[in-house]
Design a protein that fits this description.
The chain is an alpha+beta fold. The protein is built from two helices and six strands, in the order αβββαβββ. The N and C termini lie far apart (about 55 Å).
């Protein structure tokens, strides 16, 4: 009985250390990392499984920007009041594979000369 408890505790400990992005994966996004600049139409939100924001690009499209889980996004310095609505940002990440879905899973956000690496383990993919 004690061995079962130890095994169960170890399994829970191991699975809780897997990075948060692993449960969603990146399969729905293209492999290439690209940059996109736009005006913030909806500021950073840290509710739900991932932080989010929205930007409007120069062609008028509004993009859903998916950030890391809230704790990781905040740990990168990107909090709800960091970037005001109307600010111009550049995001680096992987667009959705569906060209009709204006969504990007974001690795880095640039604002006012600062880089917020919400997925620092992928920062080497940012050009």
């Amino acid at each position: 009985m004690r061995l079962n408890t130890i095994v169960l505790t170890a399994a829970i400990s191991i699975t809780s250390t897997i990075p948060a992005f692993a449960h969603h994966g990146w399969a729905g996004n293209v492999d290439e990392v690209t940059a996109m600049t736009g005006m913030v139409t909806e500021g950073v939100k840290l509710a739900g499984p991932h932080g989010t924001m929205k930007i409007r690009t120069s062609d008028g499209k509004v993009w859903d920007i998916t950030l890391a889980p809230p704790h990781r996004t905040a740990s990168a310095g990107l909090k709800q009041d960091t970037i005001p609505v109307g600010a111009i940002v550049t995001v680096h990440g992987q667009r959705n594979r569906d060209p009709n879905r204006f969504e990007m899973k974001t690795i880095q956000v640039e604002y006012a000369g600062k880089q917020y690496n919400v997925y620092p383990e992928f920062a080497d993919k940012v050009r």
